[in-house]
Specification:
homotetramer; 328 residues; alpha/beta; Rossmann fold; N-(1-d-carboxylethyl)-l-norvaline Dehydrogenase, domain 2; globular; oxidoreductase (chains A, B, C, D); 6-PGluconate_DH-like_C_sf (chains A, B, C, D)
Chain lengths: 328, 328, 328, 328
């Protein structure tokens, strides 16, 4: 199939490459001409503008927008809606908020265009491993795009099958190839959002565990109760037959094998929005999500030297006990 | 009554003064001779050693130990047990762990001596306001010491009575004067321990709230959604008719009135053990105490620049996404 | 001053009464005619409709809207905007979301009308104790309404003054009477929102503490480490000289004095929106609010028999360990 | 090698089988004679008592104790110490508290016996997949037991190697085969304890995420913002190329494929001690572990209908607002 890829950053560029390798045709556009040129070398049709891309897109055109979430995605989809034709399909493959998807789907439907949202996981490894995709949109349109999704997805590969799926007509075989049609507009990004919420929680669980292991060497503990543990070996052994083996643990094992002190890492941990949206969604549902929330807040806290609240605590302690908190 | 006060620091010294003012006799001992001399000026009988105190204590002797919890309290109680006589009463008025009380009570009972544990709240304000006391020990002994507790306690004062206490034979009138006999050995310190656990939670609730108020002026928020709020006035107004009025809020209001930026406070917040013991007690009971725990952990976090766990997070993010966390 | 009170429920009715007692004139309107009649008996001018109220309001009219937040407040303010005249003042005294205030203020400004938002605390006790008020809006308009606010507020009363306010020109004397002008439109409700966020945290801190006290009698603990504590007396004694004395503790002491088992209370704890908004505001600011969040989530959890997540945990445990979780 | 296996439950029995399959000799003892008989059929030497086992153990004897942690493990190790001879090795392969290990090691050292602690992960899958082992004890003894550990461990298998281990002399090659020598006595169980702490956190992160997905179908949400998501397919797709793939997710996918409603599971989630010990260890180190703690507390909460604290909240809300919480 022919598909216009808009946004050739780390994610969009690699996805376009994987599609080219699978025999699809890519019309490539990015504001960065160098990125377009590089992809043209890999076999893509270069476009110099959205209008140019429109001309080269074929009909109906399939637009895959792969841009940072927020304003830039919004204005791009609006621009496509203006330039596009009835029957065109616009795919938002970025990390957009699912309520924006619902809005975009309605706006495009007014012009008889279709909207599909795709949440993808796999990070920089996707080109090689394939992309795990969670898709929202009209059933018929998602089915029409199946060759695209099948090419981007990891496929069944060597991962053992899950017991209980064979002959089970409540499940969808596409899930085993690495993509699902989650529901109507927004459902793809919603599932991806929760995925990231979970990701934060998992990461924080490992982080806290390694923190306790590391802290066990502290001079403040009684002698005879200290251990100077080899974190690289611990991460490695947990990969092998333990209940907590995971891909995130694999990555931790790699980092710790390189430098068990992780000296090169700042510890100022960013968050990308999905964690926050997951908490908001949970609150709309009145679902308690203590782990997901505390994982997000640990990131907030990591990025400041002190909160003002901590000074309030010091001030109160001085007030009732005359305690003076010493800078450390 | 005559009572030996051992430990004349901020707490012990002031309690001795309050007892003297009420007409009790105090035999005063501290390793710091200056502290003893100062209290002698206030009317106390100076003692130069435990042995000396023993001679001046009368019979049966009443020992009030007011020392930092841990080893020093332990060795002092052991020494008194050696020097003391059957019928003596040893009161631990410090912040000891209640399981240590149970142990002390058993050891003293072997010598026909009595043990009483007293948890006190009121901080540096106790001399003036009186001390709120939570007492553990044998009923008969606690009753015998009543003149001591009545003198130390705030008394009913002007605090409005609680509806539902009049003619209620399930409650104890001593509570309205500011002290209770909570139960057998350890019960006093147990109740005081939970008191401090709650204290941490309350403080953190206010701290977080002020943090949100302060953060509302941040440049990162959309213009038109920022407020530059007067925290001193907010703390003040909440003292007056709001649901969240409290003594801790009074102290916050004072600190914020002096300097709304709290620039003089480090924000490295100490904890004194009771918070941790409360969590341990809750876990023994399988009671979820999320607020009390998170309040304690906020203090731990306040005292370090970064946790190792945060570096683990940065390392994972680099691993799956190529993200580089920038120092800020 | 003359003021139209729209909404004569528990809050609006009592505020109208307090204003009447202070000599103000109240035009009273509610969809419930009985409520209007009752207030007329107390001296108010009855209105049968918004239009009717308009006629009786004087000019410029002052409208105090005291309705449940959400749609009903929104449509009422819109209706007043239609019926009102330039120069009119609309006060939203309910629990509205501060971003709605910003929107309302803009819509009314288009008609040269003024908008003021007032967050109030004090609950059912306000009629007697006075209302603690946090006010947002244009400075000149808030000053013009001062007689209203002064009448509703508790006034300085017998609450001790906060050290550091005398001669301090960074603070506002109105705070000591129980109301503040927090900032422009929305600032009043924003401060009230955070107030409620804190309230949830404080309540949960006490709740967890009492839970630990109660649980200490459990049969699961080793004999000799159990205490059967008198919670009514503990709550009472903490009111008297302890660091954690507060109005919420006073209320707890009352409830526990009536029935230490609290058998009449369901424990399905509602939340009113402000807690959630506080978390959202904190996330917009990237401020960690672990205590406020966990307090809100405890309420969510209290309202269901089991979360689905708990079944997921049971399922995983069965998966890796063959563990069967027994219903209890 | 010849080894006495004491305790032939699910874990001990399967480990003995795996050792027999690898050519080791097993003297098998359990209070349950049927368990002994079954293992004898699989090739083990049956023992009818500890004394009998002693006679058949060879010299020096190697004792592997595989019993529930606590009293039974304690008395068994004490009994072995009495019956054993200098040079014997006692291995505690259960889930003991690491401070008990330190105590056991000292007691055995007094009789010139050796103590080794082994934390194992892998659950009921270990017989087939091999056991992930974390070992504490004297270096020389752990090396002598290597054939045992190598037979129990999964071995390198097909799991991809971790980059950065080749030629890295700070890491131990045993980790890649699924076992590590973590440090002196107790270090094995300490690492296993933290492993389980992490496990609780990971499980809770998934549980909360699935809860949010499930809740998105709720009638309380605005129409047009609800999704009826297929949780079995979502779990499946996340196994394939996503950042959050893990063995725990594999298990969730299996459970959800069988029944997406998980109706057969009670949701009363047990905990086995290690979660609590991890929190205690973290508090001794002053390391904040919010995720691990909140995961444990979610299990406590899952096992009761209501906490007393929730009734306290209801009582306070009634006190200040007249709110009556309805049973649901």
């Amino acid at each position: 199939m022919r598909l216009v890829m808009i946004g050739l950053g780390r994610m969009g560029g690699n996805m376009a490459r994987r599609l080219l390798q699978a025999g699809h045709e890519i019309v490539a556009y990015d504001r960065d001409e160098g990125a377009v040129a590089k992809l043209a070398e890999a076999g893509a049709i270069a476009a110099t503008s959205l209008e140019d891309a429109r001309g080269k897109a074929g009909s109906p055109a399939i637009w895959w927008v792969m841009l940072p979430h927020g304003e830039i995605t919004d204005t791009t989809i609006t621009a496509i809606a203006e330039h596009g034709a009835a029957g065109d399909i616009v795919i938002d493959g970025g990390n957009s908020f699912y309520k924006d998807d619902i809005r975009h789907a309605r706006a495009l439907a007014d012009k008889d265009m279709h909207f599909v949202d795709v949440g993808t996981s796999g990070g920089v490894w996707g080109l090689e491993r394939g992309y795990c995709m969670m898709i929202g949109g009209p059933d018929e349109v998602v089915r029409r795009l199946d060759p695209i999704f099948a090419a981007l997805a990891p496929g069944a590969g060597t991962i053992p099958r899950t017991a209980g799926r064979d002959g089970n007509d409540t499940v969808d075989p596409r899930a085993e190839k690495g993509y699902i049609h989650a529901g109507p507009a927004g459902a793809g990004h919603f599932v991806k959002m929760v995925h990231n919420g979970i990701e934060y929680g998992l990461m924080q669980a490992y982080a806290e565990g390694f923190d306790v292991l590391k802290g066990k060497a502290s001079d403040h503990l009684p002698e005879g109760e200290r251990y100077d543990l080899n974190l690289a070996d611990i991460a490695e052994v947990w990969r092998r037959g333990s209940v907590i083996s995971s891909w995130l643990l694999d990555l931790s094992a790699q980092a710790l094998a390189k430098d068990a002190h992780l000296d090169g890492f700042s510890g100022n941990v960013a968050d990308s929005g999905e964690g926050q949206w997951t908490i908001e969604a949970a609150m709309e549902e009145a679902v308690p999500v203590n782990v997901l929330t505390t994982a997000l807040f640990a990131r907030y806290r990591s990025r400041v030297e002190h909160t003002f609240g901590e000074k309030v605590l010091s001030a109160m302690r001085f007030g009732f006990g005359g305690h003076v908190e010493m800078p450390q």
